[in-house]
Design a protein that fits this description.
Number of helices: 18
Distance between the termini: 87 Å
Helix content: 25-40%
Strand content: 25-35%
CATH superfamily of the largest domain: ATP-grasp fold, B domain
Radius of gyration: 28 Å
Number of domains: 5
CATH architecture of the largest domain: 2-Layer Sandwich
CATH class of the largest domain: Alpha Beta
Largest sheet: 5 strands, parallel
CATH topology of the largest domain: D-amino Acid Aminotransferase, Chain A, domain 1
């Protein structure tokens, strides 16, 4: 088989001296000498250089393990990511196109060409993008490049959910009742939904990550949810075929990490509970699953191995199950890649799953047998997102003005792809980081999670950190009583009405605004060299204004005045009402809501996917007006009131900025005014 991957460390270390030689550094990439690929007696290559066909935290994660193993890393990046963390960390980096994923991270031809140009022996796809793309895995094989993942046939069989259900049923793995047929007509799907019984889960046959997934809770809303799921699936996977499943009420989402090698060995590394979700996407995960006894754990693992063996699976994979209140479990799907939440499995098993991926891709056997894999302690992963939990978890984008994290240690991991000053891009997923903690038992791990969340601070964007803290403190979560409806069921506890901000904080906010103004006016005075301009003074005297100045801060929807007195010694005295930190948006700027003065506004920057109305149409409150795609998610914009459409400002496919007017309409007069 040849020496293990680590044996190439000396070669790589010697070649690192080239990195700093004058004249060899070109913009956007490192220049290296070509290396001839050596082959062992078995015909398998020893991977000396790996290209990571991804971005963000997973790219950084793979680079760290590659560096530890003495394997060189090659990054690819879009124009929007040219200053990103993964680009800086990699040994080489290549620009592959514009910000749009279709023209960069989803461009198979460009990535293959970079692999050739950089003499990379292997490609690690990370997760998302091309990680579960059958055509890409096959293209790598045709080009003689190792795809660090399963075979294209396994991706195809398990990636099409209807096919995977049939394979699992034949293999004796329990599955959920549903429809997985070829007939995709609206009428057929609606008939089968009625036979299955509402509520039903509508799911794209391809892909994962909660994309192309909706719940039809009644016959009346089935068509709307079906069309929404189709649009999103077409956008994300270029396939809008759907399947239907019986929706299990308040189920748990339990998944099992499996690994297979090229020698016929397959193992499981226990389960993760990923039940707590919003928008059908995971937000906090833990391993092992709370309350799952050893016998159920063994049955879960054996069922997952049976599923993997049914498709001769090689590499890292995750078999996902739904589990009812009696711990009966049913196959849901298999993710043929490394999962976002893989670190919790690493923490409880003492493994490096990316290292396993690299070794297995190079032809080595699994590092451990099933008997040698031991479960120790408990781990949590909290996904920190740039989003607003109080606004239906609306994702955000912009600069990370300030970022501080808990200090990393063996039991606390910060998996991230951004640094202070970086930008959370509107083009990609809004995840900032994954906070991963481990302790000897669940309660100790939960305490460590809370402590670490308290130490995490982000300024410049809304985040879900406070929400994660509320979630981790909830008595039902602490007791391990988790299910996929946890957040909707406990939303009033998790998102309580905010209390009034303390008067000290308000005074500090007002003082901060005054000091910021002082910096600006001082800079103006220096630039203009006009010492007497009223705009170059922040003393309170300019424009004949008295020493008393009124400021307005805002507490939610309540505006409260603060009277600021400029004292002669440079200090300030303040009198305030009850207010919230924040500055009311001036009338001449767009509102942050989706409605202002008869216009419906874009809640965020994105693309107009579909328009349902035209000028002259009458609409009722709640009617769907527009569907937008932003930050990899679909957002439905509905009419806030009854009225008539006066004008539609954009066409389908248009890019729009946040707060841009989308539709203008004439509001119907109420009976009281007639």
């Amino acid at each position: 088989m040849g020496p293990p991957l680590g044996a190439v460390a000396l070669l790589v270390a010697k070649r690192n001296q080239w990195r700093h030689l004058p004249g060899l550094l070109l913009p956007g990439r490192w220049l290296w000498k070509q290396r001839t690929v050596k082959y062992s007696s078995t015909g398998r290559s020893n991977i000396a250089k790996v290209l990571i066909a991804n971005r963000g935290e997973i790219a950084c994660r793979v680079i760290r393990t590659a560096r530890k193993m003495g394997v060189q890393s090659v990054a690819v990046y879009s124009e929007a990511d040219q200053n990103s963390m993964h680009v800086e960390m990699a040994d080489e980096a290549y620009c592959i196109g514009p910000a749009a994923s279709q023209q960069s991270y989803l461009s198979m031809e460009k990535i293959i060409q970079v692999a050739k140009d950089s003499a990379s022996q292997a490609i690690h796809p990370g997760y998302g993008f091309l990680s579960e793309n059958t055509e890409f895995a096959e293209l790598c094989k045709q080009e003689g490049i190792i795809f660090i993942g399963p075979t294209s046939s396994a991706i195809r069989d398990m990636g099409i959910k209807s096919t995977s259900k049939a394979i699992m049923s034949a293999a004796g793995v329990p599955i959920v009742e549903g429809y997985h047929g070829e007939d995709q007509s609206d009428q057929c799907l609606k008939e089968h939904a009625g036979k299955i019984g509402y509520p039903v889960m509508i799911k794209a046959v391809r892909g994962g990550g909660g994309k192309g997934m909706r719940i039809g809770r009644s016959e009346g809303e089935f068509q709307e949810q079906l069309e929404s799921a189709r649009r999103e699936a077409k956008k994300c996977f270029n396939d809008d075929a759907m399947l239907l499943e019986k929706f299990v009420d308040t189920p748990r989402h339990v998944e099992v990490q499996v690994f297979g090698d090229q020698h016929g060995n397959t193992v499981y590394l226990f389960e993760r509970d990923c039940s707590v979700q919003r928008r059908h996407q995971k937000i906090i995960e833990e391993a092992p699953g709370p309350g799952i006894d050893p016998e159920v754990r063994r049955k879960l693992g054996e069922a997952a191995v049976k599923a993997a063996k049914a498709v001769n699976y090689v590499g890292a994979g995750t078999v996902e199950f739904i589990m009812d209140s009696n711990h009966n479990f049913y196959f849901m799907e298999m993710n043929t890649r490394l999962q976002v939440e893989h670190p919790v499995t690493e923490m409880i098993t003492g493994t490096d799953l990316v290292e396993w991926q690299l070794r297995i891709a190079a032809g080595e056997k699994l590092p451990l047998s099933q008997e040698e894999i031991k479960l120790k302690g408990h781990a949590f992963e909290a996904r920190i997102y740039a989003e607003d939990p109080r606004n239906n978890f609306m994702p955000g984008a912009g600069p990370l003005v300030h970022l501080s994290t808990p200090p990393p240690e063996p039991s606390v991991r910060i998996e991230t792809g951004v640094r202070q000053g970086d930008e959370v891009s509107v083009h990609y997923d809004p995840m900032i980081a994954k906070l991963v903690v481990w302790a000897a038992d669940r309660q100790a791990a939960l305490r460590k999670l809370r402590y670490s969340l308290h130490q995490y601070n982000v300024t410049g964007l809304n985040t879900n950190i406070d929400f994660l803290l509320s979630l981790s403190r909830h008595p039902e979560f602490e007791a391990g009583n988790v299910h996929t409806d946890f957040i909707p069921q406990h939303c009033h506890d998790l998102l309580p009405t905010p209390s009034a901000t303390a008067k000290e904080v308000l005074c500090q906010a007002a003082l901060g605004l005054l000091l910021q103004e002082k910096v600006v006016t001082n800079a103006f005075r220096v630039q203009t060299e006009d010492q007497f301009s009223p705009f170059a003074s922040s003393s309170g005297r300019r424009l004949n204004v008295s020493y008393i100045r009124n400021m307005i801060l805002q507490d939610g929807k309540n505006k409260v005045p603060i009277a600021v007195k400029y004292n002669r010694d440079g200090s300030y005295s303040m009198q305030r009402g009850s207010a919230q930190i924040g500055i009311p948006v001036p009338k001449y700027l767009s509102s942050s809501s989706t409605e202002e003065k008869g216009s419906t506004l874009a809640p965020m920057t994105g693309t107009i996917e579909k328009i349902f109305v035209k000028a002259g149409d009458r609409v009722k409150t709640g009617d769907i007006l527009i569907v937008m795609i932003a930050m990899k998610m679909e957002h439905t914009i509905k009419s806030p009131k009854d009225g008539t459409v006066k004008k539609v400002f954009f066409k389908e496919g248009s890019q729009v900025n946040r707060h841009a007017a989308l539709i203008e309409f004439v509001e119907e007069e109420s009976d009281e005014t007639q």
